[in-house]
Every structure is written in structure tokens, then in C-alpha cells.
């Protein structure tokens, strides 16, 4: 059952979504790492779709990715995990103070100037250097200068996304924007307990306790492959089963439908759960004709469901039971 969350009822929903410690009104900010499928614009929709008291537990993300949701939520205690060690190393470096706004500015100004002079040759030189040394600032550079903000690796673990063909990419204003994003996430982590871990999602979910909250944004089954490891229907089914068995509340991002088809995986595993949905457009795909709007869904555990989503779920279940 998918419940569209219309703009007309969003304000009332927002007021009753979170405890006093969770952000009621959120103007989302973007993190410094850019990637396909990033959830920055969906943050308000996500936050007004469930309830959780951050004073009592830990925010857990087994697929933290760019970190857009976690950083905007800014809980007091976070487990940010991912199988992609480059993402984890980058944010750990900010947390540890090895990457700062000033070091970021110096790096991007230097490498951006070289890119403007040498063009794609310099991009591919940085890509080769990163695949050898795995420096987190090189990773930042690539995520901002690659084609369509993609994060993709070959079978040997090498970053293989081509150049975006914009040698003047790192102009002053663009660098300042990224520097400010680094400063923002650094400030978010400063007075909170953030743990960055490279590990399989199964291990991460195994750490969840009753007062925690799990936000899950895995590779979208039937849409595109994972950015680092393989991801198939078997993995997606295992994840769905694990989510249903969690001792705590969760929210699970997944696509619901597009102009061509519906997501059978979502209905197979969560037709009896509250699901809210909204239209969204992802700039993913090598050609503009392949980039289409779709309905973005958020599965919410009954424990964390808002009154209106749970009431609608029960109403639908009763109608099915009565054959209405």
C-alpha cells in the first residue's frame, strides 16, 4: 500500500513527525561528496514520514553513501557504515581533522588550476593516482569532476568513471561551495558521537537495538547496479527480510514505480507496511532520454509510523479482509 504524501498535507504532517529533539523544519544541505541517487532534495520528505526520539538511541545507516540524510538529521549518536571504503575514509578524515575547509580549498585550487590548463589529461592523471594511493581528497576531486556525479568501480576495484568534459569546473564559487560543505559536516560531527565503519550491511544491522533507528538507502533493485559491490535480487531479498526482523524502527528508501513499471520487490516484501511516496527525478543515466521521473517510496516500520500512515494501513488491511 503506497500512500502519496501530497503538498497540501505536508505542513500538518511536519509538525507532528518528530520529538522535540529532532529537526521539525529542515532546509536540506548537500554534503561534499556528490553521487548518483543522492537524497539531499528528499530530506524533508524523509524526515516528515516517521517518528523517532534521538535522545534514546543511535542512528544507524548500513549504506551511508554520501551521508546526505545522516548529516541533515544530525543525531547525537551515529553509526555510518558502507562497503565503499573510499566514502568512509573521506568522512573519517574530516572527523579526524585531516581534511579541513582550508586543506580542501588549497587542494581544489591547485588541482582545479591544473585541470583548467591540461583538461581531461589531468583528470585521468588524478584518477590513476587515486586508484594507486586512494587519497580521500583525490576521491573528492573525482566525485566533482567525473561524468554525471557517478561513483563506479571496475571488477578490480579501480575507479573508472570518465571525465565530465568541463575543464573550468573548479571556479572560485564552486570551490567555496565545496569548502563550506566540508565545514558544515565537520561542525555536525564536532559535538556528537559518529562512528564510520567499512563493513557489510548484515553486520551493521546486527548491532541495532530497540531504541535505535535504521535508515536504509541501498542500491535500487531493478534500477542500476551498486557503486562498489555487486547487488542483486538475492541481496535485496535478504535485506528486506532483515529489516522486517529488526528490533527497532526503520525507514527504507526504494523506488516504487515509473512510467514503465512498478517495483514488484517493494510490494512483495512490504505490502503490509506503511509506505509513503512522492515524485522525484534522478539525474542518472548516460543520456537525457534515459533520465525519467519516478515515484520515490519510503517504507516505514509500524513502530515508527506516523498516525496518518498507520491508520491508512489498518484501513486498507480491513478493506482487504472484508473484500471491499
Notes on the protein architecture:
It is a single chain. The protein has 324 residues and is α/β, with parallel strands linked by helices. The chain folds into 2 domains: 3-83 and 199-322, Rossmann fold (3-Layer(aba) Sandwich), CATH 3.40.50.150; 97-180, Orthogonal Bundle (Adenine-specific Methyltransferase, domain 2), CATH 1.10.1020. It is built from 12 helices and 8 strands. The chain has helices spanning 10-15, 43-47, 68-73, 85-96, 101-118, 120-133, 136-145, 172-190, 201-206, 233-244, 264-270, 307-322; strands at residues 3-4, 59-61, 77-82, 193-198, 213-216, 249-258, 275-281, 293-300. It has an 8-stranded mixed sheet with strand order 1-7-8-6-5-2-3-4, with helices on both faces. Strand 2 (59-61), helix 3 (68-73) and strand 3 (77-82) form a beta-alpha-beta unit. It is globular, with a radius of gyration of 20 Å. 40% of the residues are buried. Residues 1-21 and 285-290 have low confidence and may be disordered.
Which structural traits does this protein have?
2 domains; single chain; 8-stranded mixed sheet; Adenine-specific Methyltransferase, domain 2; 324 residues; 14% strand; Rossmann fold
Amino acid at each position: 500500500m503506497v500512500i502519496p504524501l501530497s503538498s497540501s498535507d505536508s505542513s500538518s504532517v511536519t509538525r507532528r513527525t518528530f520529538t522535540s529533539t529532532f529537526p521539525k523544519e529542515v532546509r536540506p544541505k548537500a554534503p561534499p561528496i556528490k553521487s548518483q541517487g543522492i537524497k539531499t532534495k528528499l530530506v524533508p520528505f524523509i524526515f516528515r514520514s516517521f517518528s523517532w526520539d534521538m535522545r534514546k538511541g543511535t542512528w544507524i545507516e548500513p549504506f551511508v553513501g554520501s551521508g546526505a540524510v545522516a548529516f541533515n538529521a544530525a543525531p547525537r549518536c551515529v553509526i555510518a557504515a558502507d562497503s565503499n571504503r573510499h566514502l568512509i575514509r573521506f568522512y573519517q578524515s574530516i572527523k579526524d581533522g585531516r581534511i579541513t575547509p582550508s586543506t580542501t580549498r588549497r587542494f581544489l585550487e591547485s588541482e582545479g588550476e591544473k585541470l583548467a590548463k591540461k583538461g581531461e589529461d589531468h583528470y585521468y592523471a588524478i584518477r590513476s593516482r587515486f586508484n594507486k594511493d586512494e587519497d580521500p581528497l583525490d576521491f573528492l576531486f573525482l566525485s566533482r569532476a567525473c561524468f554525471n556525479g557517478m561513483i563506479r568501480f571496475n571488477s578490480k576495484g579501480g575507479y573508472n568513471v570518465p571525465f565530465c568534459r568541463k575543464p573550468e569546473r573548479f571556479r572560485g564559487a564552486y570551490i567555496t561551495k565545496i569548502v563550506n560543505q566540508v565545514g558544515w559536516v565537520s561542525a555536525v560531527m564536532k559535538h556528537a558521537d559518529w562512528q564510520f565503519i567499512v563493513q557489510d550491511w548484515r553486520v551493521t544491522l546486527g548491532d541495532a537495538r530497540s531504541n535505535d533507528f535504521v535508515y536504509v538507502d541501498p542500491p535500487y533493485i531493478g534500477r542500476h547496479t551498486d557503486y562498489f559491490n555487486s547487488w542483486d535480487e538475492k541481496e535485496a531479498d535478504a535485506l528486506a527480510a532483515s529489516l522486517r526482523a529488526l528490533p527497532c524502527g526503520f525507514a527504507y528508501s526504494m523506488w516504487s514505480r515509473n512510467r514503465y513499471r512498478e517495483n514488484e520487490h517493494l510490494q512483495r516484501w512490504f505490502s503490509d507496511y506503511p509506505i509513503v511516496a512522492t515524485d522525484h527525478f534522478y539525474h542518472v543515466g548516460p543520456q537525457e532520454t534515459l533520465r525519467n521521473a519516478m515515484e520515490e517510496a519510503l517504507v516505514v516500520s509500524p513502530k515508527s509510523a506516523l498516525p496518518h500512515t498507520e491508520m491508512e494501513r489498518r484501513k486498507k488491511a480491513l478493506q482487504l479482509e472484508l473484500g471491499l
